[in-house]
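Person: Show me a sequence?

Helper:
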Amino acid sequence: MPTVFDNGPIILGGPYLERMTDDEFFTFCQQHPELRVERTAHHEIVLMSPTGSRSGKRNARLNLQLGKWWEQQSHLGEIFDSNTGFTLPDGSVLSPDASWVSAAKWNALTQEQQDKFAPVCPEFVVELQSASDSTKVLQAKMLDWLRNGAQLAWLLVPESETAYLYRPGQPEPEVVQGFENELSGEDVLPGFRLRLTELG
């Protein structure tokens, strides 16, 4: 039986899904383009509904700002939007709302790997909470990103105008309250500043 958490995603599990290979999972996702699909480290499949229009607007503005930075720093690596899945070292396949992978990591992949859910963890990820998302679930997801190799991970909660900044070796995230602030890409994305007010 599928599990549903608080009107959130549907979680599918079972022996067949546990044996599903990476290629089989990729094919499954291609056969269901109408779904937003992720996979946990235990090979449970997570089915999510499309985001609402306000969340889509915010995500577009987030990626626009990241794209403007990338235009000046494209030699450093590649940026990705929320449709991109990554196969992480723990076996999960996650799709952040925005992300960046260094040129060294990206160029080390074969073209076939790049064409599927690339076996790489982005150094930088952003998760943008929508109205149907659970903050606790997303906070746990941010720790998964760090465990798999992310160097800077942001969880943005527009409804409360709160940003949680996660870094490796930091026991608790830094909390930035108020979307009048800007966030720095620090050493991971040198020169990048996210204007939170544009995500209102």
About this structure: The two ends are 38 Å apart (CA to CA).
